[in-house]
Structures are given as C-alpha cells and as structure tokens.
Specification:
Elements (H helix, E strand, L loop, with lengths): L44 E5 L2 E5 L10 H18 L3 H13 L5 E2 L3 E3 L2 E7 L7 E6 L7 E5 H4 L7 E7 L5 E7 L8 E6 L5 E7 L1 E6 L5 E7 L5 E8 L6 E5 L6 E6 L5 E7 L4 E7 L8 E2 L8 E7 L2 E7 L7 E5 L11 E4 L5 E8 L3 E8 L2 E8 L7 E3 L7 E6 L7 E8 L2 E9 L4 E7 L11 E9 L5 E9 L10 E4 L17 H4 L4 E5 L9 H5 L7 H16 L8 E6 L1 H12 L6 E5 L5 H6 L10 H4 L5 H10 L12 E7 L8 H13 L6 E6 L10 H18 L5
Helix pairs in contact: 2-12
C-alpha cells in the first residue's frame, strides 16, 4: 500500500501553450462511441461483521491462478488498447518530449567511501543503470561492479535494489528480483575481483550487514505475508544460517544494518508508532544482541553511533516532532545519563540525521519547508544553517559516507528548478555546486510561475498547495489542471522538478501538489490528523485544494484532473465517491481501494502492520469508520469522472485484484457515459514497468489519457 513513486517531468508546439488562446481541441469520444467494455461475471460472496452484511460480487477476481481471471484481465487490457488507439501519436510525441528533457548518457557525481569513488551511470538506449567504482582517484581504472542491463537481459521486469560492500572492499551483497515486486528480493554475494557469485543465496531477503571479519553476514528475511520478521547470521562458506532474532509481533518489521563508524551491527524493529534497537560489536559477530532501550508502546527511537558517544533520535506522544539525545557508549541503559542535544520543537520536525566526527548534520522541516543545520558534536559552538530563498522548494540531506569528513552534500529542487547537488563546507560555510540536472532540449525556469496557496479545509485548517504554470496564463477558468497528492504514512508530498510534467504544463496545464493531512508536511501532528479515525481529513483536504483551484479560476470542474498512486489511489477513490462532480478525469495508479476486505485478511502482505495506520477492522469502531470511506464499498449509482486505473499482476503492496474489482464494480454501477479503463501490467508490480524507457512509456500513456479527456489531441 505504501508507495514512494511520484510522477516524473517541455517542448510543445507554440500554439498549444497557455499564452495562445487558440488551443486546438477535439470532440471527446464517450464510452458509447467504442465497443462495449468487458463485463466481469457476478459471483456473489457474502461477508458479515458486527451484524452488518456485505456482498462482494467480484471477490473471485483475486485468484490469479484462475484462468478466467487472466482472461478477464487480458480482455480489459485489449479494451484499453482499443480506446487509446487514437492517442498513439500523442503518446509518442509525449514520450519523445520527455526523452528530450533527459540526459540519456549521464553519470552520478562520485561519492568517496573507504578508499573508493562510487558512481553509477545511464547510457542511451539502455533501460538500467551501471554501477562502478575507481580506487583512490578518479583517474584510476574503472571497475564495473554491476551492469544491470546485462543482469536484466531477456527479463520482462527487473529490479536491482542495491548492494552493500564488505569492509575490505572485496565483495558485495546485492538484491534483485525479476517480478517487479517491492517486497520479494533475492540476495546474493559477488566477489568483485572474479565477478562471480560466491557463498549462499537468500530468497525473500530484506536487509544485510557485514561483520568486520568480511565473511559473516547478518540478513533479514520475510514470512509468508512478506513481513521482514527474522534476522539470521551466516558465514559465506557456511552450510547453515543461525537465527539471531525473530520479531513475533505482527505489527512490527525488523531489519539489520551496520553503523557508519563500523563499530556495531544493529537490528531495528519498528511498527507505525513504536521502535526499538539491538546491537553487537561488529568485531564480535557471535555475540548475543543486546537491547539498547526496551520497547515502549508509542515510543520510537533510532541510534546513531559516534566514536565517542551515541546520538539517539527520540519521539513519543509528548515529543511528536522528535528530539535528539546524546548518551555514553556505556551505561546508556540508565536514562539519567542521557543529555539533550537538540530540543523538541512543536513547529519543527526532525527529518534526518547524519553523524560526522565533529558535527551532527540534521534535516528539519518547518512550515512545510526543509532546513539543514550542522551542530558541533560536542554540543558547544556555532550552529551552521543553510538558508533557501525560494517560497516553494525541497532540500534533502545527503550526508557524507566518510566519518572524518568536514563537508556534507545536500540536494535542492523546486517545481521549476532541476535537481541540483551541492557540497557544503561546514568550517567555511560555503556551498559548491557539484552537479545540476541537465535538460538537453532546453529549459528556462523564468518561463514559469510557482506559487504556494493555502486552502481552507471544512474544519477551518489551512492546507498548503504548491502550483506551477507557464507565465502568461490567464486565470479565467479555461485552463486544464492536474492536482496530485499522497497523504498517508507520514510521507510528505515534497515538490520536485519533473521532466515529464512539462509535457502537460507547456500545453497550458496548471500543476498542483496538495500537501494534505496524513503526510508530515507540516510536522508529525499533520500526520496524526490524517490517520486512523481522522483519515477523512486527508480526503476533505484534497477536495478543499481542488475547490480552491476552481474558485480562483486556475481551472474549472470540466478541466480538472486528479492523480494519485497506492495510498494516493485510495485518495482518488474516496474523493470521486464524495465529489464526482469536481473532477473531469482521474488517474488512480495501483490504488489501495478495497480497504475493508484487505484489512480483514491477515494472510495478505502488509495487513497487520497497517493496523496502526488505518485501524484494526476487528474492532467495531474502526470497522465502521473504514467502511464509511472504503472506495470499493462506497461505489454507488451516480455519475463518475473519466477514470484510468492501473495495476500490476505481481504487485506485493496492493494486490492486482483491488484495481481489477474496482473497475468491474464501477462499470456496473456508474450512470454516466465517461470512460473507465483498466491498464494492468502483466509482467511487473507496484511501480509498473521497471526499465526507465518503459516507465516513460507508461507516463506518456497516462498523460495522453488526461490530455485526450480535456480535448487536447496533439
């Protein structure tokens, strides 16, 4: 259900821009203008909870081993292809535009770690990255660690999730899958000198950490619900793995990691509200893990080792935005030895921390915008602050993998500013630009206007929204617009430059990013007010932002499109049930849409771990509240917008049957002649196509649907 994939982002014919009032439009075809869509067979299943009966006519669609289900999905994809056939040229145009804004042959800026410079690159025509390093100097010979293009050859889907280098730099543990799943990975170990895999293979691996002997690995594995529940220890040439920790509470997932200082191995366990950690010295892999601080419900903490002390990021109900303590390396079990390093601030959320020998660098969020500070690790001395002048932007702390470093990196972007990487010298306070995202086809930020607006929610709360549009746009209600958000799990909807979005913006679109409750955009309380029994605030916030765009004449209801994915797809389903009149077009990407059925089935991936986000439906209060907004359960006989629903057959976060059932029920009940399309990826999972070019094709497809529905054909 979690999804961290946001849509990515200029050149259209001059007559298509907002500055030209003669935008060419076309007559939109309706559902009745095409062959009849597929009709799913009605096979009622009855469910009773708390004296209430639900009848699900499409429950049978969850079994992908049933040939009838696959036949139905193929029929839906064929219907979608038929309806979208007239947009093929537009899809190709958008695809070419996006490619024109991307530097196809590109290389990340090298990062120095343990004697090597690490970087990755993309090559024109190739779907995946190549990961490389050079020893000691950038003039040294290049060593290719992983050529993912070769690894993915002949595979319809391939995800390379990353790698971890052994302390002696000789081996790499790496993760991949061939399904497109976000939760099911294979781990292998590669000898970097020979290029061959060595040791053992782990199916369902989630995390890894090397002991300092370069041969002992700790790794996490999943259970049958894809929850990371066990940590094992195994020697590379060993015949068996030893269980070192099992997380028995189904709300919690557990992961293993090594410390930056190479002193410790940590096991972290966390639910949505509670966390704890265990550790051993990395030099002593056979030791028993020791609890850092016992688990307490609604208390979260993370430990960041410094060679002279521990820093602890801490959060509880009284300190929602978090605070930082420093503790001794010994006797930290005694809370009396803890010393406050950074106090809690109800207006400022701690977003991230990186530890250096002399400084602690911290990313903060104030009023929805990022700040970065560097505070002396001693706690004494000047705090350096990086200021950002623009009213709408995102900045992220990249840190530095070298403990002894006196510099750190950060990234900066905004809706009209391509992503830029900087290196900050803490001693001098100077920032140096290392790399800026190149737009080969050309891009001028000054051609666009970025604004921050505040909508008023029904309960009077002010909700921020960032918008971007082409300079010269008239606020007369005639412009098309796309509004996007996520609004769950405390995941903030940060602004960023998107090479793909400008295929809409240059055709006269206003693009809006709503920073609604359920995210942490305005601090942890913002998240608390959009979860559990407050979840409907997420939906009404989004509706308020949409209404503001209409009321201020940025757009109109017959030109407004909305998009969201995963839990943002839940948002799309909820707002279209509540206010179908407000939107002309909806794109719901891999939507978490069948809330009650999914949350009642604890055999499905992620379910029990989600109780602290949505509520436990086996408790009547939560059952009734979830049922009152569950998009699938609240479809009714009314007019709906044009809708494109996407899914992935191998989706581990939102199983494929949710969007499938949703489309079937929508078609059966809706009273309009608008289009409802299902676009099911039959090779991949939650993120759609895994190759970068195939992913751009997916984006072009979705944008072509939106453009077609507002009457723009070129």
């Amino acid at each position: 259900m979690k999804s961290w994939n946001y849509i990515l982002s200029i050149v259209a014919a001059a007559l298509m821009t907002a500055c030209n009032p003669s935008k060419k439009e076309t007559v939109m075809l309706k559902q009745s203008d095409f062959p009849a869509p597929p009709v799913a067979e009605v096979i009622p299943d009855t469910f009773s909870n708390f004296g209430q009966t639900r009848i699900d006519n499409y429950y049978w669609l969850k079994d992908k081993n049933n040939p009838k289900v696959i036949d139905y999905l193929k029929a839906e994809n064929a219907y979608t292809d038929t309806v979208m056939a007239s947009t093929k040229a537009l899809q190709q145009t958008i695809y070419d535009e996006i490619i024109g804004r991307i530097k196809e042959d590109d290389e990340s800026y090298p990062s120095f770690s343990d004697g090597y410079y690490y970087y990755s690159r993309t090559e024109k025509g190739k779907q995946y990255r190549t990961y490389c390093r050079r020893k000691g100097t950038l003039d040294a010979p290049e060593e290719i660690i992983f050529d993912v293009n070769k690894m993915a050859e002949g595979k319809p889907a391939y995800i390379f999730r990353g790698y971890s280098i052994s302390p002696d730099n000789s081996k790499a543990a790496y993760f991949y899958n061939e399904t497109g799943s976000y939760a099911e990975f294979i781990m292998k170990v590669k000898d970097l000198a020979s290029g061959k895999d060595v040791g053992f293979t782990v199916n369902g691996a989630t995390s890894v950490a090397w002991a300092n002997d370069n041969k002992t690995l700790f790794y996490g594995i999943v259970d049958n619900t894809l929850r990371s529940y066990r940590i094992l220890r195994q020697v590379l040439d060993g015949s068996r793995a030893d269980l070192v920790y099992e997380e028995t509470d189904a709300r919690f997932s557990t992961y293993v990691s090594g410390s930056k200082t190479k002193q410790y191995i940590f096991i972290s366990s966390a639910s949505s509200t509670t966390a704890d950690e265990r550790y051993i010295p990395a030099d002593k892999p056979l030791e028993q893990f020791k609890v850092f601080l016992p688990r307490v419900q609604d208390v979260e903490y993370s430990v960041y080792p410094h060679k002279g002390k521990f820093f602890v990021r801490y959060k509880d109900k009284e300190n929602l935005n978090g605070k930082i303590y420093e503790t001794p390396l010994t006797s930290h079990e005694d809370r009396n030895t803890w010393k406050e390093f950074l106090a809690h601030d109800k207006n400022v959320r701690i977003e991230g921390i990186d530890i250096l020998r002399d400084y602690v660098t911290i990313e903060l969020r104030r009023n929805g915008l990022s700040e970065i500070i560097a505070k002396p690790a001693s706690g004494i001395g000047e705090i350096k602050t990086i200021a950002f002048p623009e009213p709408v932007y995102s900045a992220g702390l990249n840190g530095n993998p070298e403990y002894d470093a006196t510099t750190f990196r950060y990234s900066y972007t905004s809706l009209n500013r391509p992503g830029t990487l900087y290196e900050y010298n803490i001693a001098t306070g100077e920032a140096v630009k290392l790399k800026e995202q190149e737009i080969p086809s050309g891009f001028n930020p000054d051609d666009y206007v970025v604004e921050r607006l505040w909508a008023t929610a029904p309960d009077g709360v002010k909700v921020p929204m960032a918008i971007v549009y082409k300079k010269g746009l008239k606020k007369d209600g005639t412009n098309p617009a796309l509004i996007y958000s996520y609004g769950s799990y405390g995941s903030s909807s940060d602004v960023s430059f998107s090479a793909s979005l400008y295929s809409l913006i240059d055709r006269g679109f206003v693009y809006a990013l709503a920073q609604i409750r359920g995210g942490s955009d305005l601090g942890e309380q913002w998240y608390e007010e959009g979860k559990l029994l407050h979840k409907k605030n997420t939906f009404t916030d989004f509706i308020a932002c949409s209404e503001l765009l209409v009321n201020e004449k940025y757009t109109s209801t017959n030109k407004l499109a909305a998009m969201g994915g995963s839990a943002g797809g839940l948002l799309m389903g909820a707002v279209t049930n509540m206010r179908p009149d407000l939107y002309q077009t909806i794109v719901a990407q891999v939507p978490f849409i069948d809330v009650i059925n999914t949350m009642l089935d604890d055999t499905l991936p992620l379910t029990t771990g989600e109780y602290e986000e949505w509520g436990n439906p086996y408790e009547e209060e939560y059952y009734n509240y979830m049922l009152s907004y569950s998009p699938y359960d609240n479809i009714k006989a009314q007019n709906y917008p044009n809708m494109l629903i996407t899914g992935g057959i191998n989706d581990s976060q939102v199983l494929f049957h949710e969007p499938t059932k949703y489309v079937a029920k929508l078609r059966a009940l809706k009273t309009d002649d608008n289009l409802v399309l299902l676009h099911m990826n039959m090779d991949s999972g939650h993120g759609g196509a895994t190759g970068r070019y195939d992913g751009i094709k997916d984006t072009a497809f979705e944008f072509a649907f939106i453009l077609n529905r507002v009457g723009i054909e070129k």
